[in-house]
Amino acid sequence: MTETLFDLGAGANVAGITDFCIFPPDLVLPRVGGTKNPRIDLIRELKPDLVHMNLEENLERHAKEIEMFARVFVSEPKSVAEAALCIEDVGVLHGCEARARDLIRSIESQLAALPQRSFTFACPIWKQPWMWCGGDTYVSSLVAAAGGRNVAGDRTRYPTISIDEIAALRPDVIFLPDEPYLFTAADAAALAPIAKRIIGPFPGHLFTWHGTRTIKGLEFLREVRL
């Protein structure tokens, strides 16, 4: 969201960011904690008019505390289409409608440029136990835009599935983002026997971050030539 605000031209109004905000790089702004442990006292001191929160990452009790002194905008895009709508909504909130339309057109251009090839895939997000992106996730929607079918698409959002079970589903491709779990080259080698192709490890923000990072995620899918 921080990156999206800056890309929209609203960066000058950003008063504080989380400990995990890395885009744009080298931001010199107050850090107000993580998504699960925000420093409510510091957020209050910054006197924001609006606080952006994420339904999946943030906790309701923190939202209620913040609502005592600021307006809260909660987002949770679960698809590429919803990511574009989120950009539109945030553009309206910050008076950046024209720039929001430009960014949405960039998403549409990337979608149009994606070659459509049919393939099956799996994407783990954790290890010990192995957890995977299910169908109702942004990650699944992003890869589907390139013609992918998630072999765990009929499961819950982040199901626990053993390697043997995934192997039985015969994915053509396994994607290995480096977050939220830091998968390594050793993990890629261990998974190689159960898929035709392993992609990664690669920067996880290309798959798990939405907003204007969606543009980069779609570019990545085109570049890996599925």
Overview of the structural elements:
This protein is an alpha/beta fold. It folds into 2 domains: 2-112, Nitrogenase molybdenum iron protein domain (Rossmann fold, 3-Layer(aba) Sandwich), CATH 3.40.50; 119-223, Rossmann fold (3-Layer(aba) Sandwich). The protein contains 10 helices and 8 strands. The protein has helices at 2-8, 40-45, 60-66, 80-93, 97-113, 138-144, 163-168, 185-191, 205-208, 213-223, and strands at residues 50-54, 71-75, 119-122, 124-126, 131-132, 148-150, 173-177, 197-202. The chain has a 4-stranded parallel sheet. Helix 4 runs antiparallel to helix 5 (97-113) and helix 5 packs parallel to helix 10 (213-223). It starts with a helix and ends with a helix. The mean pLDDT is 97.
Secondary-structure element order, as H and E?
HHEHEHHEEEHEHEHEHH
Instruction: Tell me the number of strands.
Output: 8
| Helical percentage | 25-40%
Q: Write down the Rg.
A: 18 Å
Characterize the main sheet: 4 strands, parallel
Q: What fraction strand?
A: 5-15%
N- to C-terminal distance: 28 Å
Strand order of the largest sheet: 6-3-7-8
Provide the CATH architecture of the largest domain.
3-Layer(aba) Sandwich
- Summarize model confidence as the mean pLDDT: 97
How many distinct helices? 10
Looking at CATH, the homologous superfamily of the largest domain is: Nitrogenase molybdenum iron protein domain
Q: Classify the secondary structure makeup into a structural class.
A: alpha/beta
* CATH class value of the largest domain: Alpha Beta
Number of domains: 2
CATH topology of the largest domain: Rossmann fold
How would the global form be characterised? globular
